[in-house]
Amino acid sequence: MTAFNTKIAGINLHDGQHILQSIAIDSPLILKREPTNPVDTDAVEVYYKTYKLGYVPAYRAKTITRILDRGQPIGAKLI
To answer: What is the pTM of this model?
Structure first.
């Protein structure tokens, strides 16, 4: 499995700004495609449980989109 680290884009615009400090390191995150995003059809949202933290940065989103669209499993965690 390929691994990489990235920041979460837009964290101050979503739930992330309110709950980030309460999320434990190594907590699993959920990555969801957002093909209807008006700015970027490759947008990938980042969730912790039901809280939207933000997005995978655009420069990484296309790679994640290809993995998700192929139905391959992909994991994410807070580090």
So the answer is: 0.90
